[in-house]
Amino acid sequence: MALSRSSQDEAGPLRLGRGERLTRIERIVVLVVLVGVASVDLFELLFTPRADILVSLLSIATSAAFALYLWSPLVATCMLGSMLALSFFTETQPQTLLAAAVAAALIMRLGWTSLILVYTAAFLVAAGIIATLDRAVPVNVGIYLIVATVAGAIGFALRMASARGRRLEQELAEKARQEREAVLAERRWIAGELHDSIAHHLTVVSLHVQLLDDGEARPASQEAIRVAAKKAMADLRFVIELADDAPSAPGMQTGDLEEAVAEARGELEAAGHEVVCEGEFRDERLTRAGEIIFARVVRESVTNILKYAGGGAIGIRLRIEDDAAHLTIDSPLPTTPRKELSSSRTGLGRMAERVLGASGDFSAGEVDGRWRVSARLPVA
């Protein structure tokens, strides 16, 4: 199954239209660094003689601004800009500009397009102003531009790695979901195969068990039960072989339509029905898939006929035209209640599912006083 994503999930690492969030490891690293820097500033404030209290407080506030990137990059950037503006009054522009340059890593890692553009413009303006100030010691702003460029590249690389990690997680989750669906589909397929084959033979057995008390019908019923049990075991082995992806053993059921019709005719005649077959059941125009589906429809229909049909003739007809093949099975409606036989009550649904799944048409119901099952499949 193709991988489905929303428009936001399709953002690659180059998408900057929305913000990001730090991973747990990244948050821990940022907090450890900030705690270390703040501890140094606090130690200098408390234990260094003649320490400039205003400068130390500004340094601590700058560290706090970095901490805000863990929750809101916009608020953190605004606070950092305020610290940069205040640095012009405390003559600490180089230190604050360095902090702003380092912040480029977090802004590129977490920010969105507008925030990144505003930060870049504000940083360049501040660097330009500092470069033109008349100071006793000139400031080489080129160093800070290099630091900002390197930090931004690192932040962008981390953003790409995070985006790639999310994509891999989504792909793994999608693959796991597809594997679960494949397992469920296989289970449903096995259940359907068992229903279409084993349930049919159990119906034959149940029908003939009721005839064992009839002395005349007993030998034929015993033979029918023996044959049905043997075929049930063969079909069960066939399903197991398919589930194991093993090659089919000789003599296994293969979905041959002519064989299915012949088997159905024998079972129906053994139950006392006259069977009329019309059509060429080995017509080469019928696709292999169509042949298998029609064979299943015949088998399931015979199961229902043995359970519910009244006495009379059964018709199995196949007509193949240029573009489609038509299979029709009609039987008498029940005239007297038959002793209840077990039923899964999924036969018609299974037949319809098979036919419709092959782009065909299916119908089942009363037509002209008889029960008719009709299936149409495209030839090509």
Provide an overview of this structure.
The protein has 380 residues and is an alpha+beta fold. Among the domains are: 24-139; 254-380, Heat Shock Protein 90 (2-Layer Sandwich), CATH 3.30.565. Helices cover 62% and strands 10% of the residues. The longest helix has 69 residues, at 141-209. The model is unreliable at 1-14 and 246-254 (pLDDT under 50).
Q: Give the neighbour order of strands across the main sheet.
A: 1-2-3-5-4
Which radius of gyration do the C-alpha atoms yield? 40 Å
Beta fraction: 5-15%
Distance between the termini: 26 Å
Order of helices and strands: HHHHHHHHHEHEEHEE
What is the helix fraction of residues, given as a range? Answer: 55-70%
Name the CATH class of the domain at 254-380.
Answer: Alpha Beta
CATH topology of the domain at 254-380: Heat Shock Protein 90
Number of strands: 5
Mean pLDDT: 78
| Largest pleated sheet | 5 strands, mixed
Tally of helical segments: 11
Low-confidence parts, pLDDT < 50 over ≥5 residues? 1-14, 246-254
In terms of topology, how is this protein built?
Blueprint: H1 24-47, H2 53-68, H3 73-90, H4 93-102, H5 104-110, H6 113-132, H7 141-209, H8 218-243, H9 257-270, E1 274-278, H10 288-308, E2 313-320, E3 324-332, H11 347-357, E4 361-367, E5 370-378
Parallel strand pairs: 1-2
Antiparallel strand pairs: 2-3, 3-5, 4-5
Helix pairs in contact: 1-2, 2-3, 3-4, 3-6, 4-6, 4-7, 5-7, 7-8, 7-10, 9-10, 10-11
